[in-house]
Amino acid sequence: MSDIILEAKKITKYFHDPLTVQVLKEISFSINRSEFVSVIGKSGCGKSTLLYILSTMDTDYEGELFIDGMAMRNRKEAELAKVRNEKIGFVFQFHYLLNEFSVLKNVMLPGLKLGKYSEKEVEHRAMEKLKILGIDNEALKNPNQLSGGQKQRVAIARALINDPLIIMGDEPTGNLDKKNSEIVFNIFQELASEYHQSLLIVTHDNEFAAKTKRIIEMEDGNIIRM
Amino acid sequence: MNVKLIVDVSRSLLLARWKQTLVAAIGVTFGITMFITLLSFMSGLNDMLDGLILNRTPHIRLYNEIQASEQQPVDLYPAYKKHHNFVRSIKPKDELLQIHNSAPIIDALKKDSRVFGVAPKITAQVFYNVGSIDLTGVINGIDVEEENRLFFFSTYVTSGNYIDLKNTPNSIVLGKGAAEKMMAAIGDIIQVTTSKGERFQLKVVGYFQSGISEIDKVQSYANLNTAQKLLGESTGYITDIQVKLNDILQAPNMAKEYHDKFNIEAIDIQTANSQFETGSSVRTLISYAVGVTLLIVAGFGIYNILNMMIYEKMDSIAILKATGFSGSDVNKIFITIALSIGIFGGALGLLFGFGLSALIDQIPFNTASLPTVKTYPINYNPRFYMIGGIFSLVTTYMAGYFPSRKASKIDPVVIIRGK
Ligand SMILES: Nc1ncnc2c1ncn2[C@@H]1O[C@H](COP(=O)(O)OP(=O)(O)OP(=O)(O)O)[C@@H](O)[C@H]1O
Ligand SMILES: [Mg+2]
């Protein structure tokens, strides 16, 4: 069993509107199991674009992407949805919780979709994840009754519910103050060291990046350090 | 993908904006309510108008027509077989209107399992004598009880008791219009002149009001015996045999059959009243068209609301997709939303439609030409409810189809990047 869980081979991305611009230029790298990686680089260098491709949400690219040894190119939308559900936990800059559901239900939804456990078990697991993140007291609240930091922790709990292969985050602390950023970072750190969770986090916060094991630095669609 | 989760998510999305949901459902409810009410009412009216004619018209009428003899004596003579013959010495016979062997024919008809009932009838041309003026008229000699059973005779006798016609010798039920012209009250004796010039005195026992005033000015009713006496005929004399069938649609075929079997003229109701049939089917068509239009309008309402809902829920859809829901899951969720609105709104619509029709059924409706109708007529045909129910589901499904497809195609990257 290889330790590589995610591999990018010569990923190239163009945007055609309004002009054809190459945003990613033959990006190749790989991530090993239980690695905590941060991605940094100037604004507009293509970090988010790369992350959307790696998370299988953007399928319009050239090159090869392997997740857990499986090629992601030319797969059907439903198959990719399944990969996202099972293997990838995503944390956005904005928390993107569903206000129609309680905090607990938000965390449970991807688990229910996976259908691996019964509803009771999913609920139990969701409570455990909320406990790890220290917000189990807020489980029955509505997302819009929480603070920004709390919401981001709910989003992380949701990303964890199916025990994903890797958690990806696009500036998950970008919208938080110093204190909350630290809390979130410590959570990531704890997930990496105690639960051997692999993480790939895009950030602007160099302090944050410096504390991670590995930093990938991008510039103009190229990787200049990894 | 499990159904429970789809339903669960749909319900949460629906209830999160319950006011909007309610508006959409009310649109469907209104459409279905109006559809049911309109159709019940219009087809009630239609049935009533049809009834004006159909209730009183036999499904098949057997009669003889005065026709020239098909063969003149000269035709029978072999020497002139190949010649053009123009000598027509034989005129139609006087008694041709009579149905011969009427008793065995009636017996045979009564044994036919397709026949609901048989009523003999005599039509006699007369003049009603009013002072020195004679009014033309027709007296129908009827078997009072059979006529009532098959053609609801009693409902058209607005004054007096119809059964007196059977029990009182030489009695007459006068057409309302004729009675007014003659100023004849119930119990009065009137005088008529038969086509042969004989005068008869008849006792008025009631008024007849069909709803069609032209008929009421001319037609009157007597029992069979009285009519036979008027015409100076024996008791076997009958000019018409009226047949009512179990299934009206069989009338044309059976008329042909009887024509061949009994060697007699037979006309079915469809042929006799073809213009009437057309009118009634056009009216039905119009009411369906209006009903369906209402439902389509309601469908557009749902379409708009679902479309709006999708724009509002873009973020939620993007998130569902980012966390592993596929396009077809999202599609199912929105179809479920649309169908729930359809089922809920449609069921309420059927209920309200029934209520509203029942209400209209209570509104008094009196008109001189329709003596039997007291309230607005309603037809509670279960078929309308079935069509309404099915149509509400179909329109909501269609209304949900395009917005759902759009939702399923939303690219999560575009939404997430857009923030
Ligand atoms: N939909 C699009 N159409 C055309 N160009 C785009 C589109 N989205 C992004 N770009 C361009 O692609 C480049 C990379 O964008 P991307 O969002 O990946 O940057 P980033 O590294 O995440 O920046 P930031 O740190 O500010 O988030 C930018 O120059 C941007 O203008
Ligand atoms: Mg970015």
**Unique ligands:** adenosine-5'-triphosphate, magnesium ion
Order of helices and strands of chain A: EEEHEEHEHHHEHEHEE
Task: Trace the largest sheet of chain A across and list its strands.
Answer: 6-7-8-3-9-10
Determine the mean pLDDT of chain B: 85
Mean of residue pLDDT values of chain A: 88
SSE class of chain B = alpha+beta
Q: For the terminal residues of chain A, how far apart are their CA atoms?
A: 24 Å
CATH architecture of chain A: 3-Layer(aba) Sandwich
Say how many strands of chain A there are: 10
Percent helix among the residues of chain A?
25-40%
The residue ranges of chain A in which pLDDT falls below 50 over 5 or more consecutive positions are none
Principal-axes shape call of chain B: elongated
Portion of residues in beta strands of chain A equals: 25-35%
Shape of chain A: globular
* Helix count, DSSP H or I runs of 4 or more residues of chain A: 7
Query: Low-confidence parts of chain B lasting 5 or more residues at pLDDT below 50?
Result: none
Brief overview:
By secondary structure, chain A is α/β, with parallel strands linked by helices. Chain A contains seven helices and ten strands.
Commentary on this structure:
The complex is a heterodimer of chains A (226) and B (419). Chain A has 226 residues and is of the alpha/beta class. Chain A has one domain (36-46, 73-225): Rossmann fold (3-Layer(aba) Sandwich), CATH 3.40.50. Chain A is built from seven helices and ten strands. Chain B has 419 residues and is α+β, with helices and mostly antiparallel strands. Chain B has helices spanning 3-16, 18-54, 73-76, 102-111, 144-151, 153-156, 164-167, 176-182, 213-216, 224-231, 251-262, 269-272, 274-312, 314-322, 327-360, 382-409, 412-418; strands at 60-63, 115-130, 133-142, 157-160, 171-175, 189-194, 199-208, 219-223, 240-245, 265-268. In chain B, strand 2 (115-130) and strand 3 form a beta hairpin. Classes of the chains: A alpha/beta (226), B alpha+beta (419). Chain A binds chain B through residues 48, 52, 55, 57-58, 77-78, 81-82, 84-86, 90, 92-94, 96-101, 105, 109-110, 112-115, 158, 162, 170, and chain B through 1-2, 5, 8-9, 12-13, 15-16, 315-316, 318-329, 411-413, 416-417, 419. The structure holds adenosine-5'-triphosphate and magnesium ion.
